[in-house]
From TrEMBL:
Component of the outer dynein arm-docking complex (ODA-DC) that mediates outer dynein arms (ODA) binding onto the doublet microtubule. Involved in mediating assembly of both ODAs and their axonemal docking complex onto ciliary microtubules. The keyword Repeat applies. It comes from Odobenus rosmarus divergens (Pacific walrus). Gene3D superfamilies: Leucine-rich Repeat Variant (1.25.10.10). ARM repeats lie at residues 534-576, 880-922. It is found in: Cytoplasm, Cytoskeleton, Cilium axoneme; Cytoplasm, Cytoskeleton, Cilium basal body. This is Outer dynein arm-docking complex subunit 2. Residues 381-398 have a biased composition (Basic and acidic residues). Keywords: Cell projection, Coiled coil, Cytoplasm, Cytoskeleton, Repeat. Its main location: cytoplasm.
Amino acid sequence: MGVALTRSAQWSAAGYGTRTLEITPLNEAILKEIIVFVASFIYKHPQEAKYVFVEPLEWKTNLDPSAFESGYIVSETTVKSEEVDKDGQPLLSVSVPHIRVRSFGQLSRLLLTAKDMKLKEAQACIEANRDPVTKILGLDYNTMKEDTSVVNILDKITKDEDPESEIKMKLGMLLKQLDLHLLNHSLKHISLEIRLNPTIVKNDIELLKHFSGKGEQTVLESIDYTSDYEFSNGCRAPPWRQIHGEICYVLVKPHDVETLCITCSAEGVFLNGGKTDDEGEINYERKSEIYKDLVTFLKERSAKFSENMSKQDVRFSGEWKKKEALKEAPKKEEAAALQKALPASGKSVLEKNYINFGKSQMTKRLQPSLNWKATFDFKDKGASKDTQEEKHGRRLERSGPPVSPRRSQLVRKSAEKIEEIISESSSESEEDEEPPDHHQEANAGLPSEYWQIQKLVKYLKGGNQTATVIALCSMQDFNLAQETCQLAIRDVGGLEVLINLLDTDEVKCKIGSLKILKEISHNPQIRRNIVDLGGLPIMVNILDSPHKSLKCLAAETIANVAKFRRARRAVRRHGGITKLVALLDCAQNSGEPSQSSLYDARDVEVARCGALALWSCSKSYENKEAIRKAGGIPLLAGLLKTSHENMLIPVVGTLQECASEESYRTAIKAERIIENLVKNLNSENEQLQEHCAMAIYQCAEDKETRDLVRLHGGLKPLASLLNNTDNKERLAAVTGAIWKCSISKENVTKFREYKAIETLVGLLTDQPEEVLVNVVGALGECCQEYENRVLVRKCGGIQPLVNLLIGINQTLLVNVTKAVGACALEPESMMIIDRLDGVRLLWSLLKNPHPDVKASAAWALCPCIQNAKDAGEMVRSFVGGLELVVNLLRSDNKEVLASVCAAITNIAKDQENLAVITDHGVVPLLSKLANTNNDKLRRHLAEAISRCCMWGRNRAAFGEYKAVAPLVRYLKSNDTRVHQATAQALYQLSEDADNCITMHENGAVKLLLDMVGSPDQDLQEAAAGCIYNIRKLALATEKARYT
C-alpha cells in the first residue's frame, strides 16, 4: 500500500511536510478501492481484523462524537470503543478533532459510521499516515523484500516465536496484494484516460467563438484567451505552468452567470481562482472538479448555455465536421499520391496503416512541455515509416489491434513504471535510467551495410543450422560498434532471433549469437531492448554451462547490459549474482600446484568476465549485499594477488563500487585488501591506478584504514601520482584518496615530507570541479597545522582559494570555506584574505540555501574575526551582515546553529556590534535554543550567552526568557568543554539576583562545587565566581531579614 500511495497517488507540492492528496479522478479511484478493502475486511478476515496495530493510525476527523452509536462510550467531546486490547486500552478513541484507531475491525466500523463522509475520512487518514504499513505491522514487515516467496514467508512464521507472527504475515501479504491491486488499478485508470491537447482546445474555443456574441440565441456572450501569445507547441500558458500540463486560460461570459476564468489542461477543464484585483495575475489554484472538455464544463455551469447548445447542436457538429474535413483533405491527397507510386500488392498495407494512423490522431495524448522547439510530427514520421516498410517488403508483426502511438507509448511507460515500483526499493532511485529510444528518422543516407545486415537477419530467421552459423559469422565481419549496424539488426527483428538462438542446444549458434550481442549491447537502446525481450534470464542460465567460452561471453554481455537499474535488478532476481560470484572461483580451482603459478588462460578469462559483470551489477545497493552474502569478498581479495592487469581492473572496480558500504569497508580490512590496493598503485596501468586510488578514497573514512595505507607505503605513490595531470579521472581519484588520508595528522606529516602540499596548491587552478573538490578538501585538512598554513601562503595558495568562494558547487564551497578558515588562523594569511575581500565573500555564503555551506562559512568567519585588524569595524561594514547572522539562529540545522553561535561569540567581543545584535533580538533567539541535548551546540551557545551578557540588561533578559535553568543542566554533560563554557555563562548571569535564585533552585551550587576542584583553571575560576555571587546574594538576603 505504501508504494502505491508514494508513486501512483498524486500529491500536491504545497511545501515540505505538508503535502496533501490532490482532488483528481485517479486519487478518488485509489481512495475508493482502499475504502472497499477496509470496509469488507471485518467480514472477509475476522481473525486478522482483531489484530492490534503496532502504532495507532492518527488523524483529524470531521465526524461528530454523536455519530458513534452502539459499541462506543460517547461523551460531548470524546469517544472510546468498548473493544479494548490486552492492556485495557480502547482500540478506537476520539478527542475532538483527533482520532486514534488500532485495528482493522475498528477501521471497518468507522467507515460504516462515516456514511457519506467516507471519502474525506479516508483522505485525512492517508494524508496523516504516509507510511501506514509501518504503523500497522512494524518496521520489519514493511521492509520485506519484493522477491520474498511464500516458502520464505512460511519459514519465517514457523521460526518466529511471536504468537502473533502468523497473523502479521497474513496481514503483510494482504496489504501487499492490496498494493499490487492499487498499482494495477492506477495503470488501468491512466491507460483509459483521453487527455486534451492544444489543438483540440483551440478548435473548441474557435467554434464557441463562432457561436458567441450579443443576442439571446448565442451560446455565450464572449470567450477570450487571457494571453495573446501562443508558443510553438500551441500552448498559451506560461512555461512554469506548462510543466503542470496546463495549456491555456480563457475568460468566458455566459448569459446567466458571472465571468468564469477557466484553465484548460491536459487532464481536462476546470475553474481556477480568477484574476487578482491588484496585478491582474491569475490565481492558478483549482476551484472545481475536472471536466473532460470545455463544452461539458459550461453545460454544468450555465443553464442558458446548455439550453442554447441543444438548439445549436446540429450547426455545431456540422462546423466541427467541416474543420475535420479541411484537415483531412491534404492527408487524402497525400495518401492518393503515395498509392499511385506503389505497386498494387502494397496498397492494402499502406491503406490499413494510414487508417490506423488516422485513428491514432484522435486519441493521441499530448502534454505541454518546455521542449517547444522539439514538436513531433506523427503524420510525417508515420508516412515515411510505412513507405519504408512497403519499399522493402517488410511488415510489422502486430499482436493486437492498432493503438495510438502516444497511447501505446504511455501504456508501455506506465507499465514499466509500475513494474519498477512493485519490484524494487528506492535504494537505487538516485541512478539514472537509460536515455529514451529513438528510431531511424528516414531511409535517406543509410549506408549499404544497413541493408546487407538486414538480409543476413532474414537468413537467421529462415535458414537451417548451417545457414544460421554462416550468417552469424558473416554478421561479425561488419563493424558492429557502428550505431547504424546495431540498429539495422534491431529494426528488422534480429534481436529476437539472436536471443532465441541462446535457447538452442547448438553451442556454435550460442557462441555466434553472444559474440554479436556482446558487441551491439554497448548501445543504450539495444541494452533496453535485450531486457524487454527477456534476454537476461537466458544469459544467466548460460553461466551454468560447462563450456568456458559460453560463460565468458554471457558474463561480458551481462556486464554491458547491466548499465541501468532494471537490468541489474533482473540479473539479481534470476540468481545471476550467485552464479557470477561462482565464476570468480574458476581461477583458484584450476588445479595449478600453487597460487604463484600462472592460472590456465581460460580460467583467468572466466574469472575476469565474472568480475566485469559484477562490476556493472555492483552499482545497486541490493546487488552489493547479494555479492557479499554470496561470498564475493574473499574471492575478490584472492584475485587481487594475481599479476594479470586485465583481471585486476574489474576486480578493483567492483571493490571500489562496493566500498561505499560500511559492511564492505569492514570486510576489506579483515581480508587485508588495503595492502594489495597500495601495491597496485605502483602499476603502470593508469586505469588500475585510478580504481585503486578510488577504492582507497572510499575506505579511508575509517582511521584504521588510513593508518594501514601509511604503514603499507601508500602515501608516497599517491603523492607522486599528483605530478601527472593529463588523466583527469585518475587525478580526481588520487586527490580524493589524499584528501581522506589527510584526516590523520600522521599522514599529513608524511605528505609534507613528500612535497605533496606544494603540488596540491599548484592544482588549485585550471582543473575540473571533481578534482578541485578533493584538492581543496585535502588542503583544508593539511592547514589544520601551522607549518602547512605557512607553506600554503608561501606557495601563493591563498588567492586561488579565495577565488573559489564564488563558485556554486556545494561540496566545493564547504571544502573551500574550511580551507580559508584554517588559513585565517595565521595573521599574515588573514591579511591576504582581508585584502582579497575574502571575509565579505564568506559572509555572503551565509545566504546560501544549503545548510552545510552556511555552517562551514560561519565556522570560517570565526578565525577571520579573531585575527582581523579592527575586526569590529570590518564586521559593521557589511550592510545587513549582523542581522543576517542573528536571523540564522532560527535555523533547524544543529550544525548551522552551533557555527552561528560561535560566530556571535566572536562578533560580541566588540561592544558596538554587541549593541547592534542585541537590538536585532539575539537574546530571545539564544534563549530559545537553550533546551538542546546536542553538546556541540550547548558549548557554543553557552559561550555566546556569556559574551552577550556584557551589554545593558541582557543578563536579566536571559533570565526573563527562561535560559538559566536549562544552562544549569549543561553541567551534567560528560563533555568538559561544555562545563567550562557553561560555568563562564553562569558566572556572567549570576551578576543578576533573579538568575542566582533560579540557579540555586535548580541545584547549580552542588554541581559547581564539584567543578571548583577541576584541574582546568578557567573552569575553577568561573565555578568559584558563580558560587561567590550566589552566596553573596544569600548573605545579603539574610542580613536584610534580620535588620
